Amino acid sequence: MIHKLHTGLPVKFCNLCGSRTRIGVPEGDDRERHICQTCGYIQYQNPKVVAGSIITHEEQILLCKRAIEPRSGYWTIPAGFLENHESIQQGSIRETWEEARAGITDMHLYQITNLTRIGQIYIIYRAILDDPFTFAPGPESLVVELFDEVSIPWDDMAFRVIKTSLGRFLEERAAGTFTMSVDTLE
Ligand SMILES: [Zn+2]
Is 40 left (phi over 0), alpha (psi -120 to 50) or beta? Predict the structure, then answer.
């Protein structure tokens, strides 16, 4: 069975030599790839990792209103694409600084979610806000705010994966036990 190329960015030109690519199945492979028509370079595309944190101060949850697309104007937790040469934990700390100008401590891995359709893996920690008076919108956020559980803007959350993880967090917190979970959302 040949896997068709149906996700990822269309790669029109070769990253090495700049020539046009074609879609084809390399010898010995079982799925379509973008292949350079001139030098034969195969441009593999693989899932991207998003690192983030559910951040609390006492009972409150830290959320950011996005200033950038996708989903500008909607709320989410500090999270973003991992950079090269960076651990997941470092990425999560960096994103919290970039989006919420906040520091975090007491980080525990909480949720891994495979988004198989779009090729992303969300890795979410739970963490404690360093200082409840030190947070502010970074360049990618319009507003950063601590929410009581009853005030969380569920209808205006940017991403289903975050909504699901945050919902599970609040249920487990109410029950008094946190468990790590690995899930898949299509
Ligand atoms: Zn090439």
Answer: left
